[in-house]
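Supplementary Note 3. Input sequence used for the single-chain structure prediction.
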Amino acid sequence: MFKKILIANRGEIACRVIKTARQMGIKTVAVYSDADANARHVKLADEAWRLGPAAPRESYLKADLILAIAKQSGAEAVHPGYGFLSENEAFADACTAAGVVFIGPPSSAIAAMGSKSAAKQLMEGAGVPLVPGYHGDNQDAAFLQFEADRIGYPVLIKASAGGGGKGMKIVESSNDFAAQLASAKREAQSSFGDDKVLIEKYLTKPRHIEIQVFADTHGDAVYLFERDCSVQRRHQKVLEEAPAPGMTEARRREMGEAAVRAAKAVNYVGAGTVEFIFDTLSGAFYFMEMNTRLQVEHPVTEMITGLDLVEWQLQVAAGKPLPKRQEELQIRGHAFEARVYAEDPHKDFLPAIGRLDHLGQPDDSRYVRVDTGVESGDEISPFYDPMIAKLIVWDEDRDRALDRLSSALTEYEVVGLATNLSFLRCLAGHPAFRACELDTGFIGRHRDALIPPAAPVSNDTLALAALAELALIEHAGEQQRARSNDGASPWWEADGWRLNQDNRHALHFRVGEAEHAVVAHYCEGGYTLDIGEASIAASGTLTNGQLKVTLDGRRLQATVVRTADTLTLVREGENVALTPFNPLLAGLQKVEAGGGLTAPMPGTVVAVFVEAGQAVDKGAPLMILEAMKMEHTIVAPQAGRVAEVFYKKGEQVKEGVALLEIAAE
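The predicted structure, written as discrete structure tokens, is reproduced below.
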């Protein structure tokens, strides 16, 4: 077995590999960009080496530098994780040439499956069923449009060289094809350095079911059952489960054997995933692609099989045979994986960037597991995927596992930037999801229930906020007393005492556009809080960010996170951000917002379609922003004339800046 390996990746997957390597007594070498100098994977590894600036092309994609570090550090093998260089056949070849083991398949298998078009031709020869489409080399736009028209709409345009939803577009009609093709090619070029695409018939109600396969250097291959990854947004997986609901033993064996044939057709070695699209209307399944690496969602397979797939990878890469034969593998229980992302579901899941002011996670147990690469205080940067963590749960059956998931999601706390936690809780509790009514259109079909509008701020929340602020004020007074030369002075007291007047404190909070007032009257043992027409007897304590209160005899608690201008309460899994303010100063603090369209996220302008003076219709595309290799089109909210364009193609923009201005006609 290897004595030392280098992990050519970052974040949670790097931490995941380090965990298994340590259990096996293998030393680990981490690599990092400037943005990750203090990252969790850097702290966990036995040693860490700097790669370069934050941009992936200057750090995690520098194959020659990574191999030089492997040689200098004495690493015998390189684990590529997923993403970055994990499916780069040139890197696999370079490892071999340098005398370093690539912990993955041979470069020939990566090349064969790396092109979706070539892979589908191979699969056809191996007897693996294919969805109707065009997978050839002709990339002429007019020819591709002809093929799409021939197949019949809707069609799916997919980047031939990659996955993860990048370079993937659904086209509903022939009139939309040219624009969607251009966008798909831009995303494909940006993400994979290759703008080649393929065209497939888009199934209207499919499920996404994938098979985990493993093969060794001795010619043996097995399948470790299936995962259902049907719940997706932006063609990217959000929640995965294993086994797939409703899967029969006969269909599981049929799909598993097809996946093994696919792996053997390219002389595969190591961990791989064969993805199928399952037509819920006909019951047929079709080969979609093979990911020649460990998948993000591999933990659900580990949970139902009791196996460590990273350990299997290391064993196979070291030349050992597969640890188990097919007949020795079995399923026990049910598992879910929820991907916790820094993104805003209310803004079409746009990625969020910023600081994790507070991060609270459920405790690990036999039922709950958290795979993460970040800690409180870390930054979610625009350079990498905005995943915060993977929350994995297991129990004896699907219903009990779903209950575990709902409970664990309620315990998860993130403050500092938008997340999909509330969305995931709605998803886990949705009746249709619990009833296994699954397909890839699930989120779109139930969007209103999964992403409800923010609820009005309750009196309980305002009472909690008031008690938290009062506790913070008292704490600040105690700190000033401790620093003072006259600690016994009554001026440091925060008990509300006043001469000849009511002992009260007026607090004001802003939530969104709404303003709320709470008047706290000091009394024996606590306060009486006036909130609108209500009067609430209240008391509470704030210790290490945990607020415990009694409101009219009811006991409640919340996590409190106070930053420079925001008080965030986390209660029962929900965040409420309030801005305390002084109404006497509010008029001085207001700044008139300029007109125009603003950037919904930090990013790069990749296309500008209009110029000053041009008339535009409502809904017309004006500009395209790219962040984290995903495109977002800025459209005209109304008919009018472009007054000014503030940015040009290639320029970086910050969230909230005015991009252009439209004057209404």
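The first strand starts at residue 4 and ends at 7. The longest helix spans residues 459-483.
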